[in-house]
Amino acid sequence: MTSPVNIRIMFAYGILREYNPSVMQSTNFHQLHIFHTVAGLGSFTRAAEQLQISQPAVSIQVRELERNLGATLLHRMRRGIQLTETGESVYGYTRRIFALAEEMQASVQDIQGLRTGRLTIGSSTTPGEYILPWVMGIFQERYPGVDVALSISNTRSVVERILNRELDMGMAGAPVDIKGLVSFSYVADEIVMICSPNHGVGGKASHRISDLSGQRFIMREPGSATREAAEERLKALGADVNVAMELGSNEAVKRAVAAGLGVGLVSKFSVGPDVMAGFIKIMTVRGWKCERPLTVFYRDDTHMPAIQKAFLELLQNERPLPPMGPVKA
Question: What's 188-292's CATH class?
């Protein structure tokens, strides 16, 4: 009896033959994979970096694929590429082909019992900097033969890369309710107000929101889930906030606050060592309580690779968190 894996491989073969009856004789999977990577990343340069080969080698293989297929697949623009109609069609097939190849590899890994393999995770800044490295460390202690890679970017990018099968799963500082993905809330994250102990507001034991109306606030960049949650809560409290500085990471916000440049708003997970060292302090502000969920999400696939399943079981059953240290206000 033909196994499910063999059926899938035969189906992938049929996809290629459907496109061009002679393609199996004129095209190799190496060329297809290079084109697939270029199309997915939208750039010859980024594809060369990911594949760890030279950019001229990438261009040569794509041109050879175009010659073999007898069609132009993409136009080389000053900034990136643009797929032709044929290129879009071929890219649709390569997504299916390599998804099947990944499924085949996952089946092999299931049989091998998690002795080898690779897991790719995408994350927004806060969980990517403070939660996932801790979880990944625990996972690799249990499965030392498995490679785990973490990519930090905005939530929209992580979602797109998971749906395109470039990443296995993701974590973000906001709910994720998107067709094709399954999600669950991992932990509630609290956004705290921080200041330098030497700042003008640092000497008071507690504050009212109205006391801070004239203060310079240091915020994360627009689009950050931390900033969106904080601004929504500030608006609900009727606070008039002067955003004097916008920075692209929690670490940058903390450094600016420690330098006495203003009042900051960051995740509570990010402040423990800085509070212990005396660089910053958490402010007590009456009426201020701002929480948002850190959410795990992944593709709603019928077959889930054993590696991904094991990592999700760790997240769902144990919910490990890094040591927080003394983070009381």
Answer: alpha beta
